[in-house]
Amino acid sequence: MTEAIPKEEINAFARGKASARDVITHRRILHIAIPIVVSNATVPILGAVDTGVVGQLGMAAPIGAVGIGAIILSALYWVFGFLRMGTVGLTAQAAGNNDDAEVAALLTRGLLIGSLAGLALILLQVPLFWASFRVSPASSEVEGLARTYMGIRVWSAPAAIAIYAITGWLIAQERTRAVLVIQIWMNGMNILLDLWFVLGLGWGVEGVALATFLAEWTGAALGLWFCRAALAGPAWRDWVQVFDRPRWINMMRVNGDILIRSLLLQAIFVSFLFLGSGLGDITLAANQVLLQFLMITAFALDGFAFAAEALVGRAMGARQRYILRRSAVLTSGWGVVACVLMTIAFAWGGGAIIDLMTTSFSVRAEARVFLPYMIAAPLLGCASWMLDGVFIGATRSRDMRNMMAMSFVIYVASVIVLLPWLGNHGLWISLLVSFVARGITLGLRYPALERSVVA
């Protein structure tokens, strides 16, 4: 069976205002989303292999060193995650406007930002690592090994951050299979080199770091190969276009708003863990286990949120209000399907998932007490996750920033009221309230987003 094309889209074809690229179908959405879902599924495998390989050394310190070193570097790189989101929206809009020169220039701008940010981390590694260990102190042995690990890995920071720009640029053009290949290449190479360097050559922590270093640089090279069509033309090095002042200002504005939004979101999760630590070690451990349910949900929804980013961005650039709406509705529909499936899976197998994550009977029992919140989380958070994708594609970054700020205030107020009264139940309710608040506030801003599309 073939999927019917809505009457509005047929009329757009008749008026010559739409092309085959403007037809939004379920098949097209799945074509974008499924490779991202599969790509996300490979991420936990790498962490498990890193830990397992180092664990074969028979000592606790290397495991802790790799763990804390990876967390610190991931946190530093994460600050530049705005580069992926901002690049998707801007590139998709340029593509929707058939502005091929700007599409190529955006790739160059993203690569420049990623390279400069990576070089800054290399130059500032000493004070950054010092500050990191003041925040997360460790034993002298673990800290020494972690510094060795980080001292090697940080030299691939330009590649690791540039990959954000490359993947955002590819997603904007719906080339998520290329993103999947990059992820599989990086993870596969990392795992193989882990086994060779650590188990074969006995290089220990240094071997794990070198494996990641090589995986990230080759991953960036592979990403550039996927961008070769744009790099074969002259537009990517048209420096007048690349350094056009208004476009740079707009890009920095969008990225700045997304950075503030992301920092506020991170503040919610960090404060959640910090406040949970005051409720006892068992409760803290149970919360950490249950947060993995949110990670699973986010991994499942990313594909459909990314589809929303690409399709909404293209419709925004082409100034096609109906196609924007259809993109938002259909991708969100698939997001709801994913969330319902997650809720059913957590309700049916949540206990078994908890048992896989911990062998502590006390932590298992505590986690089961709060499992209902994780069963409800996908449905309560679906709107916030999917609307994030819609607003990223539309580059309505100011709305994202402001609605996130409002949600943060609501979360803080909920914690102040509920934590002393309900303890950890109050903490979980506050977290879910922040999801609902973000979904509602963004939803209230959606009509203005549509009205901003002027044909």
From TrEMBL:
GO molecular function, a single term: antiporter activity
Entry GO CC: plasma membrane
Parts of the chain that traverse the membrane: 29-47, 59-80, 111-132, 152-172, 184-205, 258-277, 289-308, 329-350, 370-391, 403-422, 428-448
Bilayer disposition of the protein: Multi-pass membrane protein
Key words of the record: Membrane, Transmembrane, Transmembrane helix
Main location per the UniProt record: membrane
Compartments, as annotated in UniProt: Membrane
Xref: Pfam families: MatE
Claim: S-adenosyl-L-methionine is one of the keywords in the record: no
Family of the protein in this entry: Belongs to the multi antimicrobial extrusion (MATE) (TC 2.A.66.1) family.
Protein name: Multidrug resistance protein NorM
Species assigned in the record: marine sediment metagenome
